[in-house]
Design goal:
The chain has about 270 residues and is α/β, with parallel strands linked by helices. The protein has seven helices and seven strands. It has a seven-stranded parallel β-sheet with strand order 3-2-1-4-5-6-7, with helices on both faces. Helix 2 links the parallel strand 2 and strand 3.
């Protein structure tokens, strides 16, 4: 307990899924947490859960593509908590298409605006606050889709691949500035969160237009044979946010059940 005691953390897209797990985990480990999202009900629910467990958190509505709102968010954090130590740039969406020829420019731009522009803005506005606090940790949520291609998620892969190299570049900028800020990316595999229900099977090349199930996909393609949970990712984020990772920057933390390592034939379970 207390791995991030005394730190102030901002988690974008914190109203559900991986973001919510990150917010609650950081709060449980002693951080004051600022949860932002466009889902007011979900954000309020996460903050209430944190308070109910004895933690401290606030919810602020935020569209991560709105540059003016970024300035307001950071100003509010510094006004309330006097500092910012941890940024978890997590907000993102996934838009699939049967082929890139069928993806609309509007969907391409919307996905890029949230998944890539939103991360850029998070860094642009949070680094000055973190420098005023004497340093900190930036965690950018990428994906295994940022490490390898997918024929039905080309636009999503483009954004997550961009996040991966953006994190490395900002890590080098901060190291060069000697500002005490570390920057890393996290790459979840198939994690059982609400995002899968928003990508129709047809868009993912699975034949008919019905929501996908993470567990079904995991059994087919994850070496460990099961889907991860949001808490599995939050545990990795906690490590990167804490001083335990003081010598880690510009790195990729892959939490994917072995997907990017290869494929296996699993033995039947013991009888």
């Amino acid at each position: 307990m207390g791995q991030v005691e005394g730190k102030v953390a901002l988690v974008t897209g914190g109203a559900s899924g991986i973001g919510a797990a990150c917010a609650m985990t950081l709060a449980r480990e002693g951080a004051k947490v600022v949860v932002t999202d466009i889902d007011d009900r979900g954000g309020d629910s996460v903050v209430k859960a944190i308070a109910g467990a004895g933690g401290e958190a606030i919810y602020l509505r935020q569209d991560v593509t709105d540059e003016a709102r970024w300035a307001e968010i950071v100003a509010e954090i510094e006004k309330r908590f006097k500092r910012l130590d941890v940024l978890v740039s997590n907000a993102g969406i996934g838009i699939g298409a049967p082929t890139i020829l069928e993806m609309t420019l509007a969907d391409w731009r919307r996905q890029t605006a949230i998944n890539l522009d939103g991360v850029f803005l998070s860094v642009k506005y949070c680094i000055p606050a973190m420098r005023r606090a004497g340093g900190g940790s930036i965690v950018m949520m990428s994906s295994v889709a940022g490490l390898r291609g997918s024929p039905t998620l080309a636009g999503y892969c483009a954004t997550k691949g961009g996040v991966r190299l953006f994190a490395k570049s900002i890590a080098m900028e901060c190291a060069g500035a000697n500002d005490g800020i570390r920057v890393n990316s996290v790459h979840p595999g198939i994690i059982d969160t609400p995002i899968w229900g928003k990508i129709p099977r047809e868009a993912a090349g699975m034949g008919h237009n019905a929501p996908m199930r993470a567990e079904e996909l995991a059994k087919a393609g994850v070496p460990l044979g099961f889907a991860g949970e949001a808490q599995d990712i939050a545990n990795g984020v906690l490590f990167l946010a804490s001083d335990a990772s003081r010598y880690v920057t510009g790195s990729e933390l892959v939490i994917d059940g072995g997907i990017t390592s290869g494929s296996v034939r699993r033995a039947p379970p013991p009888q």
